[in-house]
Design a protein that fits this description.
Mean pLDDT: 79
Largest sheet: none
Order of helices and strands: HH
Helix content: over 70%
Radius of gyration: 22 Å
Strand content: under 5%
Distance between the termini: 63 Å
Structural class: mainly alpha
Length: 71
């Protein structure tokens, strides 16, 4: 089985560790963002009337920005 080969194998150890740390932090931030989005989604599902109100307000704002008529 062929092992995944990337361009970091030709870098010195300090640079390679820095790139690995950057990738790890990017992955960690993505996981944290996902967890935060799930938490907010669960909180909002407790109040469905807020979701509808927020949708109506945001759709009015989009229409104003695009020059459409607001009802």
């Amino acid at each position: 089985m062929q092992r995944f080969h990337d361009e970091t194998t030709h870098l010195d150890s300090k640079t390679r560790r820095k790139l690995e740390d950057q990738r790890r932090m990017q992955f960690r931030r993505a996981i944290e963002d996902h967890c935060e989005q799930r938490r907010l989604q669960l909180e909002m599902s407790d109040y469905p009337e807020l979701i509808a109100a927020n949708y109506l307000l945001s759709s009015k704002a989009v229409r104003r920005k695009s020059g459409g008529k607001v009802r």
